[in-house]
Amino acid sequence: MVAKLLDGKELSKEIRNKLEQRVKILKEKGIIPKLVVILVGEDEASKVYVRNKHRAAEKVGIKTIDIKFPKNITEKELLLHIKKYNEDNSVHGILVQLPLPKQISEEKITCAIEPEKDVDGFHPVNIGHLFMNNPHSLPCTPHGIMQFFEKYKLPIAGKNVVIVGRSNIVGRPMAAMMLNNDATVTVTHSKTKNLSEFTRQADILIAAVGRASFIKKEDVKPGAVVIDVGMNRNGEGKLVGDVEQKGVAEVASYLTPVPGGVGPMTIAMLMEQTVKFAERSVQIVNRKVSNS
Ligand SMILES: NC(=O)C1=CN([C@@H]2O[C@H](COP(=O)(O)OP(=O)(O)OC[C@H]3O[C@@H](n4cnc5c(N)ncnc54)[C@H](OP(=O)(O)O)[C@@H]3O)[C@@H](O)[C@H]2O)C=CC1
Ligand SMILES: Nc1nc(=O)c2c([nH]1)NC[C@@H]1CN(c3ccc(C(=O)N[C@@H](CCC(=O)O)C(=O)O)cc3)C=[N+]21
């Protein structure tokens, strides 16, 4: 078997084109969707993200404001900046790039962002809604992954889904989304014993580990759908996934490439969420006007 590649570049372009129309309508109403992205210090994956996100936003017509802080910024100072953007009515979305330096609590920062502006869907309130199968704002990476299943009509209900990795930004919300779509979900991590025994049972295998070419051909059930979330630099500085792509492509039915797979979809979902929040802000204003 030679796996079909799930083209995230193409699908994200399709999504962005639809968004462009929605942004046009908003602009006619005098609203420009605005996203604030806060980057603290230097993180390789985050830098790639900032660059690509900026390009995508420009194409769609979203205004993004990139704020960079040195890695020694205090938690208190960062919280003050978040408060300022929470209170600014022209800002529809706020994103703080993770990971953060050690002196700053990621939990505190995540909780400080207004849930209505939480484009990442990381706030406990939004995570709670997701786990109750009534999502308000969805984490962009797993949400982007779900788009592949929809676009390519890949069934989820009743399938064995195995996720490698349990981070708050990928593994855990991915598990909730797959469960909401009636899959049987297994979440594995660094303490999992005999990992390969689990991965080989997967009809759908999702690798979010952060280790270059970690999942090999022999870890994959023939015919499985394999999603590679990894974004690692190899020895030559080349971007590689968590899946050993060449070998796995020989056994999987579908596979997301790196680059050009999950990454562009994450960005497309971030754009969509920002536009959704901007649209919601118009509805809130309309409601206030009709009530007065
Ligand atoms: N394409 C995209 O849009 C995005 C890509 N990424 C990329 O995806 C990857 C994962 O990101 P993220 O979830 O943030 O990473 P984290 O480092 O937060 O989490 C990694 C997870 O993998 C688990 N893990 C580590 N080593 C092993 C092992 N040997 N066996 C089994 N499990 C293991 C860890 O287990 P434990 O919990 O026990 O420590 C942890 O749960 C990275 O390469 C990142 O750059 C991330 C976000 C978006
Ligand atoms: N609060 C927060 N939310 C995140 O969603 C978040 C984060 N912090 N921190 C960092 C990780 C990483 N991440 C990426 C998303 C897209 C690409 C991406 O565009 N990848 C291209 C790379 C192409 C190139 O080389 O330029 C691709 O896969 O094709 C990369 C990385 C989001 N993350």
From TrEMBL:
One of its GO terms (biological process) is L-histidine biosynthetic process. Its EC number is 1.5.1.5, 3.5.4.9. Residues 139-281 form the Tetrahydrofolate dehydrogenase/cyclohydrolase NAD(P)-binding domain. Pathway: One-carbon metabolism; tetrahydrofolate interconversion. Residues 6-120 form the Tetrahydrofolate dehydrogenase/cyclohydrolase catalytic domain. The keyword Nucleotide-binding does not apply. NCBIfam families: PRK10792.1, PRK14186.1. HAMAP family: THF_DHG_CYH. This is Bifunctional protein FolD. It comes from Liquorilactobacillus aquaticus DSM 21051. The lineage of its organism: Bacteria, Bacillati, Bacillota, Bacilli, Lactobacillales.
